[in-house]
Amino acid sequence: MLNVEELKQRLCEAGFKIDAIEVQPRLPSGRRPDFLIQANIDGRDINLVIELKERPHLAELRLAADHIRRYVGPNQAPMVASHFLGPNRRALLREMGISYIDMAGNIYLRAPGIFVEREGKPNLLSYQREGLNPYSDKASIILRILMDEPGRSWKIREIAKAGGITPGWASRAVDSMVNRGLVAYNRQSGISLLSGEDVLKEWADFYDWHKNRFYYYYCHAYDSQELLDKISKLDNNSRKFTLGFQAGAYLVSPYSTFNRAHLLIDGGSFDIVQREIELKMELEQRKDGANLILVRPYYKHSASFRARKIDKWWVASDIQLYLDLNRYPLRGHEQAEHLLQNVIRPKFNKMIKGKHGSQRT
Predict the structure, then answer these.
(1) How does pLDDT run across 281-319, given as a tens digit for each residue?
(2) Hey, what domains does the chain have and what are their CATH numbers?
(3) Pairwise CA distance, residues 184 & 276, whole Å
(4) 129 pLDDT higher than 60
(5) Residues 24-46: what's their mean pLDDT?
(6) Is 63 helix (H, G, I), strand (E, B) or coil?
(7) H-helix or E-strand containing 225?
(8) Quick one: CA dihedral 19, 22, 28, 33, positive or negative?
(9) Distances in Å between the alpha carbon of 33 and those of 25, 45, 143, 249, 321?
(10) pLDDT value at position 25?
């Protein structure tokens, strides 16, 4: 549980002088925030109205930010405090005009005559400490199914069959997702996604493309199109590999050119498939000037889940493309946002209207 001493310490580290702290004060509006802090920074006084959110999900955070913004007074700055706020959570709060601070040292405060911002601090806590991680490799299969058909409700056995997992394990994973406010579930209507875009962005905060293993090669090809043509001639009837990252996104919704193609190879047969591709494409193993990268995904079970064939190539799912590109260099974030806006978001916009979160019943 985040406590007042931790909060005070982080504010002091950011340059604030704390004059007074009230716990659950009653404001003129009748509301009771977690803390009201009178502070001074660079000679300017400020009253911080702070709501604590332990490990908020984006959908919950959006509601909390809207709530606190409505009841603060004219000389008060609304702020959310948390153990950790990932990049997408921080972006949401900035967009909504809400200041924030987390125990990793990330802070943002904009008020008349005051601007404080510190970013880039690492995550001190992880989902692994909170039980089953809904964004782990195997559990994410359920989210991928829900995101692929966001307007549909699923029974436990239906989703287990679709994902190739046992009903018992699927039930445990769904419990974890319900508790975190990601999905709604009851025995009559089944499982449904609550806020697809918020869930995806939260997932992207936890996903780390660096954990994939990359093998760099040069393939003799005049340009990217010739490289794709050579890839299309490989035997891939059993979907042993899928195009991902920039090349995959280009085939789904062209945004910008690319000079490297990534092939995500099934982990169980990686060594065999890697050797086949090396021989058939006459590859030179080198990092400088590499134009073909073979990838051993750290999501062993789900990286190629729901891959589809586009023209002559098997391509990773839109969700996997977004996750890998979101923080990837070489314009990766721009490509991810283009994919979100033009392909993924239109699907989410068709979600059933009026759904609300619920505990399992």
Answers:
(1) 999 999 999 999 999 999 998 999 999 999 999 999 999
(2) 4-118 (3.40.1350), 127-205 (1.10.10.10), 209-325 (3.30.460)
(3) 45
(4) no
(5) 87
(6) helix
(7) helix 224-232
(8) positive
(9) 7, 19, 34, 44, 40
(10) 85
